[in-house]
Amino acid sequence: MNCPQCNTTYFDNAPACPQCGAANPARQASPAANAPQPAPLMPPPPQPGMAPPFAAPRTPAYAAPQQTAPNSGLAIASLVLGIAGLVSCGLTAVIGLILGIVAAAKTPRGQRTNGMAIAGIVVSAVFTVFILPAIVASVLFPVFAKAREKARSTTCVSNQRQIITAYVMYAQDHEGKLPSDSEVWPGVNTEGVTELMTHCPASTGNSYGYNAVCGQKALSTFNNPNHLIVFADATSPSITDVDSIDYRHNHSSVVAYLDGHAKVVSSVMAEELRP
Predict the structure, then answer these.
(1) Which of 83, 153, 205, 252 ranks highest by number of CB atoms within 10 Å?
(2) Do both 124 and 180 map to the same domain?
(3) Rounded distance, CA 213 to CA 207, Å?
(4) What is the largest CA-CA distance in the chain?
(5) In a domain, 28, yes or no
(6) Which of 3, 60, 49 minimizes the C-alpha distance to 26?
(7) 3-state secondary structure of 209
(8) Domain count, the chain
(9) For residue 130, is it within any domain?
(10) Which domain does 119 fall in, by range?
């Protein structure tokens, strides 16, 4: 700056002009600038055995942060559910297979969780692919067999109902006289019974037997036609006693009575084979 008295140039922070000694007006206008600055506050020195104030907690250089493997819960659940499939007939193995696939897809390769997820997939897949179908088949096959046999017995009832109807019609066309053992099948054939109707769908040998005690008798001589068996599932073409009845429909037999009705029975009484 320039001195106001002698116009000598000197530094702004000089207390006075070096030429004439006049006081520096800038220093006089700002007394706070000439005041000594206070020393910065420093924390007190630490005492022996005490940590310095405001010190951050130390972390050992060897201590690495703990990381939990992602999706470990899914992998463990997959393995547990896969093993539980042995007890649950493979039902839980399906859920375990799904969880294992999800865990394996979300876990980076090489981690321990990935191996556990693969183990869960393998165990669950074994039960799902091999054991579960076998268990389901063992449960459903008897149901299907029973339903198939039920359909066969229904067909057999229909066959014998048509045979006994044709049998009665034959007697009415022959003055009420029932056919003999040798005339019965040709006779019912003339009344519309086809060869297919005379075959039981559950039979591998003889289909229906005829109660020969009815032959050559008048239809009007029978007092209880609704209790007299004329045709039945039999082991031979001629029914002679209860041992001739064949229980081929789930331990039951289809029989036809003289009054024209047919049904499935679980047993046959000897009285039902006698007039």
Answers:
(1) 153
(2) no
(3) 19
(4) 172
(5) no
(6) 3
(7) strand
(8) 2
(9) yes
(10) 72-142
